[in-house]
Amino acid sequence: MPSKQAVDLAMDMGFDLVEVAPDADPPVCRILDYKKFIYEKKKKEKEAKKKQHTVSLKELRFRPHTDDHDYNFKVKHAREFITSGNKVKATVQFRGRDIIYSDKGKELLERFAEDLEDISKVESKPTLEGKRMFLIVAPK
Fold first, then answer.
1. Number of domains, the chain
2. One domain for residues 69 and 111
3. Of the chain's two ends, which shows fewer C-beta atoms within 10 Å, N or C?
4. HSE-CB for 124 with a 13 A CA cutoff
């Protein structure tokens, strides 16, 4: 129907003419209460937002000479992060001349990935950027 006729019909009924699908050919409009339409739309968006889970990236830092107790403690924290649905970024920080121990850092990160293999998968292999080597693991 012509738009002028649709507007007149909506006015007679005491409602608004609302364009629902502007991309359609021809555009689709409805006669309804606009305030109620907006209220229901916001309510649906809020409900959808409640159900979504955002994945965040948690970071754990190591040094090339990290002791076993400290390592195990951080692995325990990583398990908690992964089971709650977050990704974990394990970083080995090299300071000063520690960079000559980059092979130890790589071994540490590979051991970390191996220890968490049952609940996670490796998203990125150990890579060295400047004085940091990192690995990212995500939940399975």
1. 2
2. yes
3. N
4. 12
Q: What would the two tokens of residue 100 be?
A: 């000559």
45 and 67 co-located in one domain:
no
**Nearest Cα to 39, choosing from 11, 10, 23, 18?**
18
Compute the average pLDDT of residues 66-76: 92
The whole-number pLDDT of residue 17 equals 86
Q: What is the pTM of this model?
A: 0.62
Predicted pLDDT at 110: 92
Domain limits at 41?
3-50
| CA–CA separation, 123 and 73 (whole Å) | 22
CB 132 within 8 A of CB 91: yes
Structure tokens at 130: 């400047």
Q: What is the CATH number of the domain that holds 34?
A: 3.10.20.80
The mean per-residue pLDDT over the stretch 10-30 comes to 86
